[in-house]
Amino acid sequence: MSSSPFTATQQKTLKEDYLPDYLALDSDHARNKHLNVIIPQILEHENFHGKLGSEKTEKEWKASIIKYFKNQRQTQRQQQMRQEHKDSVSTTVNAAHDPVNCIKTMRKAVKLFQVLGHENVDGQSIFKSQNEEKIREHATTMSGNATANFKKALKELWDAEPDKASYEAQAREYWNVPNNQLQFLIGASRLFSAVCEYKHLGKVELMLMYTFAREDGTTDTRGTEGVQEATSSIEELMY
């Protein structure tokens, strides 16, 4: 991890005076707006004004402040994901085998991967991933090639969709790379847990290795292996 460009006093000021309100906001849009408000305040704060080194321009110092807050948000997301994983594992361990819920969990995870696999993530691709059964049913009413009919059915249903805005809003969430990284791991955790707990692949050993780039230029490399039970899914990957 690269060292912070801020002094210990400046880091304390950021952490105690500004970070809590930033992390308490419930959307990236709100957090970005908040940054626009507090960055001028931070630059005028007694611990920052006239005390930032000349090795960076004011624009570069603003970028460093933004990077600090976004890295803290990424850390918060990771902590939330770890807690969600622990809660999910605890619930699964104590629950009776529920094949229906298992299948739903697997399909939800697969849909997530399908969305992330699109070259262009837009409202229509989200609509497609969430309504494939409906689209296929509509396609069966058409004559001709099945593949062409599916595309035609998708276009017709998307054109008729009254709430395109909600799908477009969901698509914008996938433009956030750090969030995509976390959601990918959540989906992988749920899929691995379901597959291994219910033995859908028989006796199996699964391995997942990854290296993600962080916004500060460092990398995060982790992995897991030997997954057989829900309690040993990809918890190692989370830490």
Q: How would you describe the overall organization of this protein?
A:
There is one protein chain. This protein is mainly alpha-helical. It has a domain at 1-96 and 189-239. 63% of the residues lie in helices and 5% in strands. The chain has helices at residues 8-24, 28-44, 58-94, 99-116, 123-130, 132-139, 146-160, 164-173, 177-197; strands at 208-213, 219-224. It has a two-stranded antiparallel ribbon with strand order 1-2. Helix 1 packs antiparallel against helix 2, helix 3 runs parallel beside helix 9 (177-197) and helix 4 runs antiparallel to helix 5. The longest helix is centred in the first third of the chain and has 37 residues, at 58-94. The radius of gyration is 23 Å and the shape is elongated. It starts with 7 loop residues before the first helix and ends in a 15-residue tail after the last strand. Residues 225-239 have low confidence and may be disordered.
